[in-house]
Specification:
Distance between the termini: 40 Å
Number of helices: 12
Oligomer: single chain
Number of strands: 7
Helix content: 40-55%
Largest sheet: 7 strands, parallel
Strand content: 5-15%
Number of domains: 2
Order of helices and strands: HHHEHEEHEHEHEHEHHHH
Strand order of the largest sheet: 3-2-4-1-5-6-7
Structural class: alpha/beta
Radius of gyration: 23 Å
CATH superfamily of the largest domain: P-loop containing nucleotide triphosphate hydrolases
CATH topology of the largest domain: Rossmann fold
Length: 348
């Protein structure tokens, strides 16, 4: 059955793609075999992450980006990570209409997925869904996060290029970026740039980037913004010839389609930079290493949960800890002992 599904997916049948992602998202029987078979067919898609605070206009921008890519003759897959329902675990916003510009276009595949309670982070299922879209042959894969919790940090593990949306007049949001999002952004997008406060937000972002670089003005902006506009730091005379990417700042009015072409051009520039500098290959190595670690953690956790159930459940251990019969560290050692013994035997 999985073989037929994979064959249909690779043949370009969207229904097979939808069924595959459903199987992956719901972790149905056989999903691991599916993902394993998909792996050899991946590696060609350009994966873009779009994140930022709620209300920044991410969905509108992604809609316009997809339409612009289609005008270029490219195929697009969109995965929107929505908050998980506390009751069903499904995507709360899964039924909303978000791709108005692309309704009826079969070459734009949209899927809303749940963050699945992973502290707001991207689920492993999302990474697997990206593989399905990649194997299917989508040229561009866009991941849009809900913009809360750990999403902004986790997305860098899956996307080649990350764009962070910042609404105008959001001084607090700009300050928040210093806490970590600054480090994952390859591009800052000040959306709704026709509103009051946009110029100030752009200036705050520039100052933030300059501060990060130790007071040395960063090359920011694109097509008319400050700096060279190509996203690269221009080395001073006598400096080594290598160039380091600096996140450009692009202003957009997504609901009018303004600035979208500039965003796409910066994304293309960054993709070229990654390929030319060798960073793309390094990103791939880091991504696979992180994926392996995550899968190991999930699988070991599953094995431990089964062992805890066999031993009478966690409450039994909690009761022993409360009565001072055993301590939490001893519980951990006791549960991990069989795994440790198996590993020791393999070494022998």
């Amino acid at each position: 059955m999985s073989g037929n599904l994979i064959d249909e997916l690779l043949a370009g049948k969207h229904r097979a793609l939808a069924r595959t992602i459903t199987k992956i998202e719901n972790r149905q029987a056989g999903y691991r075999e599916l993902v394993s078979q998909l792996h050899e067919h991946t590696g060609d898609a350009d994966v873009i992450g779009i994140t930022g605070s709620p209300g920044a206009g991410k969905s509108t921008l992604v809609d316009k980006m997809a339409a612009a890519y289609r005008e270029q003759g490219l195929t697009v897959g969109v995965i929107a990570i929505d908050p998980s329902s506390p009751f069903t675990g499904g995507a709360v916003l899964g039924d909303r209409i978000r791709m108005g510009s692309n309704v009826g276009d079969m070459e734009v595949f949209f899927r809303s997925m749940s963050a699945r309670g992973t502290l707001g982070g991207l689920s492993t299922a999302t990474t697997d869904a990206v593989k399905a879209l990649d194997a299917f042959g989508k040229d561009k894969i866009i991941i849009e996060t809900v913009g809360a919790g750990q999403n902004e940090i986790d997305i860098v593990k899956t996307a080649d290029t990350v764009g962070v949306l910042v609404p105008p007049g959001s001084g607090d949001d700009v300050q928040m970026l210093k806490a970590g999002i600054l480090e994952i952004a390859d591009l800052f997008i000040v959306n709704k740039a026709d509103l009051d406060g946009a110029d100030r937000t752009v200036q705050e972002l520039k100052e933030m980037l300059e501060y990060r670089d130790g007071g040395v003005p960063a090359t920011v902006g694109h097509h008319g913004a400050a700096g060279s506009g190509d996203g690269f730091e221009q080395p001073e005379s006598g400096d080594p010839p290598e160039q380091r990417w600096h996140p450009p700042i692009v202003e957009t009015v997504a609901n009018k389609g303004e600035g979208v072409d500039d965003v796409l051009e910066v994304l293309a520039d960054h993709r070229e930079h990654l390929a030319d500098s060798g960073e793309l290959a390094e990103q791939e190595r880091m991504r696979y290493a992180e994926e392996i670690r995550t899968l190991l953690q999930e699988d070991v956790r599953g094995l431990l949960e089964q062992e805890i159930d066999r031993q009478g459940g966690l409450d039994a251990y909690v009761g022993r800890v409360r009565s001072k019969e055993i301590d939490p560290y001893a519980v951990s050692d006791e549960l991990l002992e069989p795994i440790a013994e198996c590993l020791e035997q393999r070494e022998e």
